[in-house]
Amino acid sequence: MPELRHDPIQKRWVIISVERGKRPRDFQLPPEVEKSGESCPFCEGHEDRTPPEIFAIRKKGSSPNGPGWEVRVIPNKFPALMIEGDLERKGMGVYDRMRGIGAHEVVIETPSHNLSMADMSVEHIVKVLDTYRLRWLDLKNDERFKYILIFKNHGAAAGASLSHSHSQIIATPITPKIVAIELESAKEHFMHKNRCLFCDILDYEMEKYERIIVSNNNFVAYAPYASRFPFEINIMPKRHNHNFAELTQEELLDFAEILKDILLRIKIGLRNPPFNFVLHTVPNVKAKPRRSFYWDTIEWDFHWHLEIIPRLTKIAGFEWGTGFYINPTPPEDAAKFLRDLSFYSKDVIVE
Amino acid sequence: MPELRHDPIQKRWVIISVERGKRPRDFQLPPEVEKSGESCPFCEGHEDRTPPEIFAIRKKGSSPNGPGWEVRVIPNKFPALMIEGDLERKGMGVYDRMRGIGAHEVVIETPSHNLSMADMSVEHIVKVLDTYRLRWLDLKNDERFKYILIFKNHGAAAGASLSHSHSQIIATPITPKIVAIELESAKEHFMHKNRCLFCDILDYEMEKYERIIVSNNNFVAYAPYASRFPFEINIMPKRHNHNFAELTQEELLDFAEILKDILLRIKIGLRNPPFNFVLHTVPNVKAKPRRSFYWDTIEWDFHWHLEIIPRLTKIAGFEWGTGFYINPTPPEDAAKFLRDLSFYSKDVIVE
């Protein structure tokens, strides 16, 4: 049974997930090995090699757990958290723990083994994003889940254990630390100024324009002023909206369009580096966690966004011990580089 | 000129260090390349290839910036922060910045090109640790420096750009975030309980023993209860002492002994993985930073320690976006594995 443990010195929760590594020497997750689709459990026709599907967007006439799907959601075969049971919070001497209750799902984004998200059609990316939205809305009905995290690891060095394009959803009994800090900052800003912090940042960035990479009717992609890593990118909706799941059909399309645009710029301009993206949205407002003071005034409280971190530098080890980052690439230079990519064309598919 | 920038959403400072990467595409620091000592600027006899030394432990009769040294401290050739000037704090629209003022030094731990710290004699490690201490005491006289960070990157994947064994010292105008959180936790615990949080943890760990790896008269090495990474290790002094620089000669010797012991266990047991260590001690108490509330009651406020993070897993990308860690190796298993290493002997030198 996985366990959530609290560190009283650094004030953070950690998932200790024994199921994922068996013996002390097996600390490595399986590396990204699949070269061909033959042995890949995520490929169309191999549906029997995964746990039964939770959700799928399917062609008419196809059956669950068979071919004919476009996007498919399955439980993670090596889940970091377990779906069954109660939290059983308890103290352990100076420490605190709870059982590792939660959900861990995999979104297989495409039946094609070699298609990366950057090369999918905008229409297909809409289906992937809509799948995120529908899974979020379903998981939020479980009141044990205080936060539902949607994220993607691309490339082995970014933590992907299979090369077939996929993302993950983890529903956790706590709000992750960085999201909690963002919620606090937004609340504090509103209390002082009666304005959304994220809206203020967007206004300032659009005026300056030096860190903007690209924008469309409903979204802006920019390099954050205090980027921790080279080519860190935020995609933010222009409309103030705390909840990703409440985006409109028109916004969904524009989100897919700007996401494809940015992923292609990263792929072409930075030579297909490993990357991670993480969706920051509100906590599960139906849940009523103890010790929480966020969600009573949730309307002004947050502004959802997507954070993309290309994994270009190796200088992050020291940073783990201090929380202090040294970034050798000014975000203005990163933004200019990605904005000006002259060989970039939306119609080119690059493998 | 490097710059410190504050992120108003995640409430952290970042060093934007243009000097370290030249163009947007040069985001990589130079990789660890030196295979032989011939081209290594840190080797004895190559003193003219580094900036002039700041400090050295030398054999009688040898001259500064020539051979004959045992430990040598030089300014970093590619400093993340600059020593000259004032902070010039100012607002930039919604953001805050200051100039990147600070010191960035390199401690060359040995004249021998191939000797890693695990294989140095305890007597030599005492000299390295004493060098840390003396540099800390010197740098603290500069009131612009609020924190003096001592850390080591071992191996290219941990961020070392040269293979010749060295550590680094960075004096910064702010206290790094994770250290600041630790200071707050310690203060809060004392306010509630009139006891040191770290002393309480040490008591509990020594009683349980399941996460202890090794101990001697003055130090304990253990795997933290809520370890973020497999084989994360803390070395903590038994005596309550907030300041690393105030350790006694006897403690210095015991610290060197347990550090060598742990580094050898990591090297042999985990097959010489890349690792980082970071020394967490008090902020520079002579400095009187604005917006600080820590140092008026500094005596009970902290308990210095060394954090060691072997770089074994690749799963840290998602963690950067959330602050939420999944650790596949329970610290009890990691501690048992390192504690029980049967082929371990302090006298064996392994290259």
Order of neighbouring strands in the sheet with most strands of chain A: 3-4-7-9-8-13-14-12-11-10
Distance between the termini of chain A: 41 Å
Number of strands of chain A: 15
Order of helices and strands of chain A: EEEEEEEHEEHHEEEHEEHEH
Helix content of chain A: 10-25%
The geometry of chain A reads as globular
**Low-pLDDT regions of chain A:** 288-298, 347-351
Strand content of chain A: 15-25%
- What value does the Rg of chain A take, in angstroms? 20 Å
Query: Largest sheet of chain A, if any?
Result: 10 strands, antiparallel
**CATH arch. level architecture of chain A:** 2-Layer Sandwich
Tell me the name of the CATH homologous superfamily of chain A.
HIT-like
Which CATH class of chain A?
A: Alpha Beta
Q: Compute the number of helices of chain A.
A: 6
The greatest inter-chain interface is formed by: A-B, 92 and 92 residues
Structural class of chain A: alpha+beta
Number of domains of chain A: 1
Oligomeric assembly = homodimer
- Assign the CATH topology of chain A: HIT family, subunit A
Global mean pLDDT of chain A: 88
Short description:
Chain A has six helices and 15 strands.
Task: Compile the SSE list and pairings.
The structure is a homodimer of 351-residue chains.
Chain A: E1 3-7, E2 12-16, E3 55-58, E4 69-75, E5 90-92, E6 95-99, E7 103-108, H1 122-139, E8 147-154, E9 166-172, H2 177-193, H3 197-208, E10 212-215, E11 219-222, E12 233-237, H4 249-269, E13 275-280, E14 305-310, H5 316-322, E15 325-327, H6 331-339
Antiparallel strand pairs in A: 1-2, 1-6, 3-4, 4-7, 5-6, 7-9, 8-9, 8-13, 10-11, 11-12, 12-14, 13-14
